[in-house]
Amino acid sequence: MRNLSAANMVAVCLWLTSLLPLDGQEGESRAGSSWDVLEKHNLDIIPAPKQIEVGDGDVTLAADNKAAAVLVLGETEERKCVIGAQEINKTVKQMSNLELPVEKHLPGETAKKQTLILIGTPDGNELVKQYSQSHKISLNKESLGDQGYVIRFVRDEDGRRVVLLAGGDSQGALYACVTFCRLMKVRNGALIAVQANIMDRPDYSRRMLWRITSPAGAKETIDHALRCKTNFIFGPGAAEVEAKFFSKIASTPELARAWKEINQYAQERGVRIVFGGWWALDTAPTQARIGSRDYFYYPVDREDRTMIGHRGLLFCWSHEALINKRREEIRQFIRATGAKAFYLHPVDGGGPDDPEFWSKRCQGCRTKYGDDRAAADAHMINSWYSAMKEEDKDVIFATVVYPYVPRFLERPAGKQWLGRLSGLIPDDVHICLREAPRDQVSLWREVEKQPLLMYQEAYYLHWALRLPFVSQFRYARTFYFPSDDRKDIYWYNVSAIGYEDLIAPQLLGAAEFAWNSDSPGAESFGEESGKWSDVLGPSAPISNRLLPRICRVLYGPEAAAEMQELLTANLSPYLIAMRPPLQSRPGQYLAGVDAEYLQAKMNEAGKMVKLLTQARGRVRPEHRSAFDCQLAHAIAAKYLLDARLRLEKLGETDSPSAQKEYAKIERLLAEGTEELRKQGLDKSHVNFEELSSRLMQGRMPG
Q1: SS3 245
Q2: Distance separating alpha carbons of residues 565 and 558, to the nearest angstrom
Q3: Quick one: average pLDDT of 502-528?
Q4: Which of 157, 578, 580, 628 could form a disulfide with 586 if both were Cys (CB 3.0 to 4.6 A apart)?
Q5: How far apart are CA 689 and CA 636, in angstroms?
Q6: Crossing angle for the helix pair 412-424 and 438-447, nearest 10 degrees?
Q7: Could you report the per-residue pLDDT of 134-145, keeping only the tens digit for each?
Q8: Strands 69-72, 149-155: parallel, antiparallel or unpaired by DSSP?
Q9: pLDDT score of 18
Q10: Total Cβ atoms within 10 A of residue 293
Q11: pLDDT at 147 (0 to 100)
């Protein structure tokens, strides 16, 4: 394992020194202490700053229908700082119907009474440099690190208020701006900023949350990511992408232009969209049923060899003509879309005894590699990597290697394979690793030298659970290694495509723990983590302290209390509609979903629907969509729970009396459809008809 360089060790020491409280103000440096300060002063910042100290008095930004502050960007007008000013003015406009003037330099005499809000870096804004030096505020990259920022409230020599929103780099300055937005409040008819001095930087330097599968609505998702200081978003991924995805996009000008616009929009905000795919060389259709064992491996005879068929795709380590064709498709895709990050997956099968179905490789692979799977995998990784870097040296490439669980290293052959593979590929390729106890992750890191794409699945039991607020993100500290300088990506994968409003509370929770891995409620991932009892509900520090803050951000203070209660109940109509056989893997996981559990949840659902219906009229327009999504799922859960309990009582009987009861249950579900309709809620919020059908048929939702 690599140790910190001397420069980075100095940076850490400077950072720890900088976390000492400032004179005369409250607050401490640790995440739990910053939560105390946020709660005391009713500040809803996610993620919480590592250091925040609130002083006396507020700073007026607008009053009497006039701006009382001016934003100053400096002559260079760095793009991220311009966007930061825009973010501030969006909030100002929303709260006061005004906008603050934006200037390049110090405004003239007429603006002498206005508060100066200085945005930028010492290199990009001379005023930031001057004020930071005169007030002894450290803004050097060594103390702040990548993405670190400060917010300081000071006065100039004439007594004028000055607010410094500054970073060691422009990304940090942008994060200072989005944090400043959360300091704004309306008091006595005036828009003010709470005087909070902040110094902050992330734990994980690369944090992947949210999901984008098409350009439609992508900018809104990118804005959400920015405001929660998330800098990677998973784009179209391996589950949706087949072998010709890159070439199809590149050869469709309109779609390529749309993705290029989205990528540029993201990059300007310090966000990369990660495009997923496979190591596959072509499609390989099969008649096997999706999900069946035969779908995971089948022989494909093509040209002069028998290659591996897997999930409708073709895999081979030695067919250079197809590999080079694929490389060119990747280059064209980057050229057409401006993509900056990729995640590719090899064959996902075979287990530890025959990883990637290596024993099924073609004669060409046997001739070229013998039994050296590490060399074969390295050839594929290096082929994709070089194609990407030839087109754009700034591209970040992450790949799965198989098996992707550290237990594989308990086998001497596994350890030998990974060590050899690591030595054959570039140092900056990210290798994907699944969640595991820390000692196992540490062993993996000792064997290979590349940074990790640390993959943690929210729904560890089964994707279809879709519980709105599981707190698996509390394990983030397990995979965080501050003692070396690798730039790991932490990926909290919820993957609820089309359910973004439903799982948004989880994403905000993950944003908190990716930034502050030791936040209150943090735990270490263990062998029993992720089992049924582990996902029933959030732990007390999270449900009682973090969740209220999340609810105020997402739903506004008007409905936050009701939403906190709803999310603590963790009602999922998708879980309720699941009736897998008890002997199946999901059935074993869901053994806790018994009559007692269902009855308790039914009582909670009825109560929550009443509370949310009453609160709905208080919700502000900007929070309405997210609120309605949760309300729709609560209504769906209420009716599905009632129907599920009745079905459980009926058992498997098909008697005439049972048929009458089935008819009653169908009428009950029809009432649920009608209630949703009356509330103005439709399939865009929850597909109740589909869930009802699946419940009645005893099938699992997809």
Answers
A1: helix
A2: 14
A3: 92
A4: 580
A5: 10
A6: 50
A7: 999 988 877 788
A8: unpaired
A9: 40
A10: 10
A11: 95
pLDDT at 19 over 50: no
pLDDT of residue 350: 95
DSSP 31-93: HHHHHHHHHHTT---SSPPSEEEEEEEEEEEEETTEE-EEEE--TT--HHHHHHHHHHHHHHH
Q: Which residue has the tokens 């330099």?
A: 105
Alpha carbons within 13 angstroms on the beta-carbon side of residue 675 total 22
Report DSSP letters for 284-296, one per residue. ----SPTTSHHHH
81 backbone φψ class: left, alpha, beta (φ>0; ψ -120 to 50): alpha
State which H helix or E strand residue 673 sits in.
Answer: helix 656-678
Contact 400, 345 (CB under 8 A): yes
pTM: 0.92
Amino acid at 548: P
Q: Is 693 exposed, middle or buried (0-12, 13-18, 19+ CB in 10 A)?
A: middle
Q: How many CB atoms lie within 10 A of CB 671?
A: 11
Radius of gyration over every alpha carbon of the chain, rounded to an integer in angstroms: 27
Query: Which of 87, 400, 170, 169 minimizes the C-alpha distance to 274?
Result: 400
Question: How many other CB atoms are found less than 10 A from the CB of residue 694?
Answer: 20
* Alpha-carbon gap, residue 428 to 435, rounded angstroms: 21
Average pLDDT value over all residues in the chain: 88
Buried b (16+ CB within 10 A) or exposed e, 470-501: bbbbbbbbbbbbeeebbebbbbbbbebeebbb
Distance, first Cα to last Cα, the chain:
41
Length of the chain: 702
Give the C-alpha separation, 161 to 69, whole Å. Answer: 9
Token duo for residue 259: 């993705």
Q: Peptide bond preceding 49: is omega within 30 degrees of 0, i.e. cis?
A: no
What is the pLDDT at residue 647?
A: 87
- Taking the C-alpha atoms of residue 573 and residue 701, their distance in angstroms, rounded to an integer, is 10
What pLDDT, in 10s, does the model give residues 568-617? 988 888 888 876 554 455 555 565 667 888 888 899 999 999 999 999 99
Identify which of 62, 22, 274 has the alpha carbon closest to the alpha carbon of residue 154.
Answer: 22
Query: Stretch 370-386: mean pLDDT, rounded?
Result: 98
pLDDT of residue 11: 42
Q: What does the angle CA 257 – CA 261 – CA 265 come to, to the nearest 5 degrees?
A: 170
CA–CA separation, 127 and 129 (whole Å): 5
Work out the number of other CB atoms within 10 angstroms of the CB of residue 672: 22
CB environment 226-250: b (16+ within 10 A), e (fewer): bbbbbbbbbbbbbeebebebbbebb
Three-class secondary structure of residue 483 per DSSP? coil
Question: Phi first, then psi: what are they for 668, rounded to 5°?
Answer: -60, -45
Q: Are strands 232-234 and 272-278 parallel, antiparallel or unpaired?
A: parallel
| Rounded Cα gap, residues 334 and 260, in angstroms | 9
**Lowest-confidence region among 265-274, 349-358, 518-527:** 518-527
d(CA 109, CA 511): 43
Cβ atoms within 10 Å of 670's Cβ, excluding its own:
13
Centroid of chain to Cα 170: 22
Q: For the residues of 393-451, what is the DSSP string, one character each?
A: TT-EEEEE-SS-SGGGGGSHHHHHHHHHHHHHS-TT-EEEEE---HHHHHHHHHH--SP
Percent of the chain predicted with pLDDT > 90: 69
Does residue 26 surpass a pLDDT of 60? no
- Cα–Cα dist 319/578, whole Å: 44
Q: What is the pLDDT of residue 693?
A: 92
The whole-angstrom separation of Cα 194 and Cα 203 is 26
Q: What is the 3-state secondary structure (H, E, C) of 645-665?
A: HHHHHHCCCCCHHHHHHHHHH
Residue (of 137, 142, 141, 191) closest to 171 by Cα position: 141
List, edge to edge, every strand of the sheet that includes 305-310.
282-283, 313-315, 305-310, 298-302
Block residue for tokens 């540490």: 442
Amino acid at 423: G
